[in-house]
Design brief:
The protein has helices spanning about 5-25, 30, 55-60, 60-65, 100-115, 130-140, 200-215, 245-250, 255-265, 285-290, 325-340, 355-360, 370-380, 410-420, 425-435, 475-480, 485-500, 500-505; strands spanning about 35, 70-75, 75-80, 90-95, 115-120, 150-155, 175, 180-185, 220, 275, 300, 345-350, 385-390, 505-510, 515-525, 525-535, 540-545, 555-560, 570-575, 580-584. It is of the alpha/beta class. The structure holds alpha-D-glucopyranose (GLC).
């Protein structure tokens, strides 16, 4: 029996359990494991070098074999692809390169028959300038769609400064000659922001969401959702440090009103869940968005981890020193406590906007690649919250580290390169930074096998393929190997699914300041788990805190042979070793 300073800890766990029952109901989306697919880079069946829906259909058995429950698809709607589908031209049509609506229906049916749920990307802060609404809107000042977007008439002078993510001049107001006015675009110039302040816009969005729900989708990942509400008097903002604008964008006056309305009008009518992308949401505001009583969203992706290795206030520039494990733990400790009593967290180490998890949080050198990748899987799957994996994580795909600007396709890298060039900045420093920070580190095609183009396409891939697919970073090789990252991933997924404690149990971090070992427990009813992770390249000895007592420990899973755990409190861990014990 686990007798952690008996009276105190027991009282704690009893208390937290009571609260759990009151506010943290059990649901499929808390217990589910999400697998994110970037369709463009997943599997091409037509030979045009671009992944497609039939490619996903072809791989459904593989996806199901992972043991995951939910698929999140990056945008598949009709789009001119200025920002790879995040610029939507028609919300109810499938992007031509990806296939047809019939393909989509078949994909969904194929998922349902394998008990897989589908989460779509909802991109409604902005659309494409090629969307009918915008074409109408820009055609005249009295067009009935004029007020679907944010316009600033030129006779009022230059609009107050707003920063744009992808604009070559970082300017979010674009002058449009036709009606002598500026329109607002927080992202690229081809991504005009929709005006949520107009109730007609909101109704159009809700109807579109019903359209997809009626087809049978199970939820939405909501792109940059805190940005939807704007102060339409467009005040001057105090933004001496330019990148502070993110917090400003995320705190629009009506963001909660809109999210609540969206929930009432759409989400609440289905057995669905929403996960918001949450740039700019401060931890103190977390429950305002996801407290069950507020009926807004179910969870969101915070950005505290994603900014850990970046310069303060900078989104895309790496900091000079390496991130510290104590800082990493602090992010997870703080966010776990934020949702301890209400709400629910999402757990992720990578996605299509950030570099590869193993290259960023592990060590992708040949010596440590496999162990650090499996350690990271152990971590995510033993924490409280819903875990999200990005395609290729399950085989430990690594950063591609392009060296030439012509290798890049991403508007983000290309336009910032132009910005640096135009402002006589240091292009070498910029290119070096992109090797670690660029989004396209994550977007190179999936590695299926060792055939040409990693089995992704028979044609010319839309973006370079990481040549290391030939070195056993591929699905078919790892499927055959008993101790591959892929085999381990399946085991740890199964372990989480067999132990509700790993989903709902309370989390306690030991030694938050330790810079090499991350040790914590998960406790739920009478089940106790101890997780030990060595986040370093060296052998480490770790001693449990004095108030932890147990009678017996049972090893459930380790990514390497145990070096020494014979003593009661002391453990010896190999570099990047992860061990899960059940304590009795
Ligand atoms: C989100 C998406 C990103 C996209 C941006 C603009 O951050 O994840 O890929 O570029 O929104 O839609």
């Amino acid at each position: 029996m686990w007798t952690v300073t008996l009276s105190r800890k027991r009282t704690n766990s009893y208390l937290s359990f009571t609260i759990l029952v009151m506010s943290n109901t059990h649901t499929w989306w808390k217990e589910g494991i999400v697998y994110q697919i970037y369709p463009r880079s997943f599997n091409d069946t037509t030979g045009n070098g671009i992944g497609d829906l039939r490619g996903i259909i072809e791989r459904l058995d593989y996806i199901a074999s992972l043991g995951i429950d939910i698929i999140w698809l990056n945008p598949i709607y009709d789009s001119p692809n200025d920002d790879n589908g995040y610029d939507i031209r028609d919300y109810r049509t499938i992007m031509q390169e990806f296939g047809t609506m019939e393909d989509f229906d078949e994909l969904l049916a194929g998922m349902k028959s394998r008990n897989l749920r589908l989460v779509m990307d909802l991109v409604v802060n902005h659309c494409s300038d090629e969307h009918e609404w915008f074409k109408e809107s820009r055609s005249s000042r009295d067009n009935r769609y004029r007020d679907y977007f944010h316009w600033w008439p030129a006779e009022k002078g230059t609009p107050p400064k707003r920063w744009s993510y992808f604009d070559i001049e970082e300017n979010a107001w674009q002058y449009d000659k036709n009606t002598d006015a500026y329109y607002l675009h927080y992202f690229a110039v081809k991504q005009p922001d929709l005006k949520w302040e107009n109730p007609k816009v909101r109704q159009e969005i809700y109807e579109m969401m019903h359209f997809w729900f009626k087809k049978g989708v199970d939820g939405f990942r909501m792109d940059v959702i805190p940005f939807i509400s704007k102060d339409t008097s467009y005040p001057e903002i105090d933004a001496t440090a330019p990148h502070e604008f993110i917090a400003y964008y995320a705190n629009g006056p009506k963001v909660h009103e809109y999210l609540n309305e969206l929930n009432q009008e759409v989400i609440s009518k289905y057995d669905a869940f929403t996960v918001g992308e949450g740039p700019g949401i401060h931890i103190d505001q977390a429950l305002d968005f996801v407290h069950e009583d507020r009926k807004e969203m179910d969870m969101f992706f915070h950005f505290d981890l994603m900014s850990l290795d970046r310069k303060p206030g900078e989104v895309f520039t790496m900091r000079e020193d390496r991130w510290k494990l104590s800082e990493f733990k602090k992010v997870f400790n703080d966010w776990d406590s934020a949702f301890a009593k209400a709400g629910w967290g999402s757990l992720f180490l990578a996605n299509h906007d950030f570099p590869r998890a193993v290259s960023r949080w592990g060590n992708d050198s040949p010596e440590h690649w496999k162990n650090s990748a499996t350690l990271l899987h152990t971590f995510l799957l033993t924490m409280r919250g819903t875990p999200y994996f990005y395609q290729g994580d399950e085989i430990g795909m690594t950063n591609v580290r392009f060296t030439d600007i012509n290798d890049y396709r991403d508007i983000n890298t290309i336009n910032r390169y132009e910005y640096v060039k135009n402002n006589k900045g240091d292009l070498k420093t910029f290119m070096d930074n992109e090797q670690h920070a660029a989004r396209e580190n994550a977007r190179t095609p999936m590695h299926w096998d060792t055939s040409e183009n990693a089995g992704f396409t028979s044609g010319e891939p839309w973006i370079g393929i990481n040549p290391n697919y030939a070195e056993n970073i591929n699905v078919s090789g790892q499927e055959k190997e008993e101790h591959s990252i892929l085999s381990y991933f399946k085991k740890i997924v199964a372990l989480r699914k067999n132990h509700k404690a790993l989903v709902y149990g309370t989390y306690t971090c030991f030694h938050p300041d330790h810079e090499r070992i991350y040790a914590y427990s998960r406790a739920y009813h009478d089940q106790h788990f101890l997780i030990l992770l060595n986040f370093s390249d060296t052998i480490e000895t770790y001693c449990l805190p004095p108030d932890i007592n147990y009678n017996r420990k049972v090893k459930l899973l380790s990514n390497q042979k145990i070096l020494d755990d014979k003593t009661y409190k002391e453990f010896m861990l190999a570099p990047w070793q992860s061990i899960i014990y059940k304590l009795e």
